[in-house]
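One thing: could you explain this record?
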Amino acid sequence: MADAAIRPGRLFLGSCTAVTALAFTFAAMSAIMYQLKTEFLLDNAQVGLIGGAGLWGMAISQISFSSLCDVVGMRNLLRLALVGHIVGVLLFVFATGFSTLFAAALVVAIANGMIEAVCNPLTATLYPDRKAGMLNRMHMWFPGGIVLGGLGCWALDQVHADWRAKMIMVLIPALAYGLIFLREKFPPTEAAAAGQTLPDAFKAVATSPLLWAFLALMTVTMSLELGPNRWIPAVLEAGGLPGILVLVLINGVMAITRANAHAILARVSPPMVLMVGTGVAGLGLLALSFSGGTVATVASALVFAIGIAIVWPTMMGFVAERTPRTGALGLGLMAAAGSLAVGIVTTPLLGQIADKHLPDTLDPPAVTALAREVMASPTTKPAPLEAAAGAVAASSGPLPAAATGDFLRRTAAGEAGPALASKAAPVLAAAENKSGLLSFRYLVPFAFGVCLIFGLVVLSDRRAGGYQAQVAKARLVSDA
C-alpha cells in the first residue's frame, strides 16, 4: 500500500460501482420474471431455473476465478466481467425462448462472479484493519444498487417500455466501473503479499474447520436473503402490488443498515449480529407468507429487511477475520457457496413449491367449469392448450398441478380468445400471488435453525475470551 501509484480510494470506488452493476442485474432480472412468464409462456419452475442460473453461474465463476486473482490479474478479470455484462445483456435483448434466456442469465452470472472474485479480496487487502466494516460498506451497494435499478425498472414500467429496456439499463453502471478501473494499478492480495502461493491457500482452506462450517451456514443465510428477493416482485405483482417498489423498500433498508454497519459492529460482535439477524429474518418471512393486503405485506417485508440487512457481509467479514490464511480463495468460496445454493436449489425450488401449491389456492369447481368452457369454445386452440384444458375439465378430485397452471397461463395469454382470457387472468394472478407467498414459509425453519447455531458460536466465543480475542489468535496463527 506504500506504492503511490496505487490509489485505494479510487479502487474502492470502482469496487462499489462494480457491485452496483451486479445489483442492477439482480433488480432487472427480478423485475422481468413476471413478464417472461407472460411473453414466453413459462411456468414458475422454468422462470426459477432462469433466475437460478443467474446465481449458480456466479458461484461457479467465483470458485474458478477467486483463486486466480494474482495469476490472471485483478484488472484483467474486471475487463472480462465488463465483456460478460455486455454480451449477457445482448443475449437477453435478442432472446427467443427459454434456452436463450437461460444462456443470457448464465453469461451475466459469470460476469457477476468475476466481480465478487476480485472486489472482496481487493477490499480486504485495501483495509486490513477494517475488513468487516469496509466489506459491509462496499456491499451496501448491492442493496443500494437494487434500489437504484429497481426504481429505474419501475420508471420504465410507467412509460410502458419493453422489458428488454430493463436489461439494457444494466450497461450504465457496467460501463462506469470499466472506466474507473481502466488505468488503475492493483495491489497483490493479502495472501500474495505475505508470500502465500495458491497451494498454500488451498491447504489453508482444507485445514480450516471453521471455514467449512461457515460455508455450510452461508448456503442457508444467502438463501434467506436472495431466494425471497428474487421472487418478491413477481409474486407481489401477481397480487396487484408494485412488487419492484417493495423490493426497493427492502433493499433501501438494507443499504442504510450496511452504511452504518461499522457502528453496529463496533458495539456488537459479528456472531451476535448473525444470530439476531437470522432470527428476525425468519419472523419476517413467516409474517410475509401469511400476509394479505398492502399494509401487512409492507410491514412484513420491513421486518424481513431489517433481519437480513447485514448478514451477508458480516459472514464475509467473520471469515476474513477468523480465517485470514484462506485469503481470496476463502472469501470466493464463501460467496460461491451461497450463490450456488440459491441458484441451484432455493430459487428453482421456491418456483416448484409455488407451482405445486397453485391448485390449493383455487376453487376447483370454478376452474373446472372454465376449462369446460374453453373446451367448448369454437375458437381454434393450440394443441397444448387443448391437452391442459382437457385434463382439468376431466378432473373430479384435486386439480392436477402442472396441467392447471399450463391451462390458466395459456388461456390468460389469449390462446382461447380474449373473452376467456379476461376470465382466466384474474384467477391465475390471485393464485400465483398466494402460492408464491406460501413458498416463503418453507424457509422459516432454516432461519430459526441457523439462528440457534449462531447463538452457540456466541457462547463459544464468550467462553474463549470474546470475539476480539479469537480474531487476535487467528492473526497470530496466520503470521506464524
Remarks:
- The chain has a mean pLDDT of 89.
- Residues 107 and 374 are 40 Å apart (CA to CA).
- The longest helix spans residues 8-40.
